[in-house]
Amino acid sequence: MPDPRPPGLATLAIRTGHHRTAEQEHSEAIFPTSSYVFASAAEAAARFGGEQPGNIYSRFTNPTVAAFEERLAALEGGESCVATASGMSAILAMCLGLLQAGDHMVSSRSIFGSTTVLFNKYLSRCGIQTSYVPLADLDAWAAAIRPNTRLLFVETPSNPLTEMGDIRALADLAHAQGCLLAVDNCFCTPALQRPLALGADLVIHSATKYLDGQGRCLGGAVVGDRKRVGEEVFGVLRTAGPTMSPFNAWVFLKGLETLALRMEAHSRAAADLAAWLEGRPGVTRVHYPGLPSHPQHHLVGSQQRGGGGIVAFEVAGGREAAWRVIDATRMVSITANLGDTKTTITHPASTTHGRLSAEERAAAGIGEGLIRVAVGLEDLPDIQDDLARGLV
Ligand SMILES: *Cc1c(COP(=O)(O)O)cnc(C)c1O
Q1: I need a labelling partner for 89 at 20 to 30 A (CA). Which of 42, 100, 148, 317 fits?
Q2: Residues 229, 182: contact at Cβ < 8 Å?
Q3: pLDDT averaged over every residue in the chain
């Protein structure tokens, strides 16, 4: 008999992680409990001592959170997943779990604004230094690695410019130098890109975005091998407690069930919107992985399936023109979240990337005329009409 065919991604997203209780519920149960009862003092001692597996306290384990962790680990193809209270606490827990004073990281300079602040202001206080390089410049990555470099950190596609890094090449570079590669897979999700299969060691998620899919809850996750994630990162969570709530985990479980469908729809709409924007008056540049004009377009197909749901574009006339486009919208939401069924629009230079210095913003390529649209699932002509109002 040949080996049975492994389940597909949509099946994993719908079926993994649900361990039905004696109630025989069809949909996953929520366990809103902070602690768990032991049958005896001896059992309590055995649980605390680690001799007997089982729940103790929801700072470290909760059945609903565990279901989400098991499901996301399966989708990313990782041995272990640790769920966290937010995407930022996932990055913090990973760094605290795997790095120590004297260590060095190399990071793409095109990363989420708060991630830059976390590295520069807070991790530096712990003696962990970070160097920044242009995401797509492999020579710059190689040149930035020092004897004490432990981790390469990349977000691909990047926020907001949708630049792409070559995950396979970065993983090879990291491993040749004895480093780990961590990929923030927020923009693609495992429905479009599976970094571990491409050689990455760790995957970061802001579940707040596409994993939820409807802008309801904050959450995050780290996925990777049993030792680093299941023990080291889990140890930080167990002790410091940036834990995901069971209610949020349940919302994300439901979100994952439609992830593949949604990502395909977001991607298709974003590709059409990007092509349409390229011909609009006042639009000087459109950033979208699926466009042939994108500098790393070749990675679509080989590394990520489709271009994803984020489109950034530049308008002539700087901040004034960009704000005009944003303020002329009637349907699209002016809000910093992304990965929602509702289309959202932001001016990165004055919001998500506003805490960076002008020089840091310039180095990251975030101009005053740049607008980011996270394309939702409304009818595309309605999104186009809304954006066209301010484009003159
Ligand atoms: C939003 C975001 C984060 C941070 O996640 P939170 O859930 O908001 O803490 C990290 N990385 C990327 C790429 C993001 O878009």
Answers
A1: 148
A2: no
A3: 96
For residue 204, what are the β-bridge partners?
A: 184, 222
Residue with tokens 């500098």: 295
In the chain, alpha helices (H): 9-15, 41-48, 63-76, 87-98, 113-117, 138-144, 167-176, 189-192, 234-240, 246-257, 259-278, 299-302, 318-328, 358-363, 380-388
CA torsion, ordered 132, 135, 140, 145, to nearest 10 deg? 60
Q: How far is the CA of 206 from the centre of ligand 1 (A)?
A: 5
Look at residue 124 and tell me whether its pLDDT is greater than 80. Answer: yes
Cα 330 to chain centroid distance, Å, stands at 28
pLDDT (tens digit per residue) in 229-282: 999 999 999 999 999 999 999 999 999 999 999 999 999 999 999 999 998 999
Q: How many whole angstroms from 112 Cα to the centroid of ligand 1?
A: 7
pTM here? 0.96
Query: Where do the domains of the chain lie, and which CATH numbers do they carry?
Result: 9-256 (3.40.640.10), 259-388 (3.90.1150.10)
pLDDT digits (tens, 9 = 90+) for 60-106: 999 999 999 999 999 999 999 999 999 999 999 999 999 999 999 99
CB-based pocket (< 6 A), ligand 1: 86-88, 112, 115, 155, 159, 184, 186, 206, 208-209, 218, 220
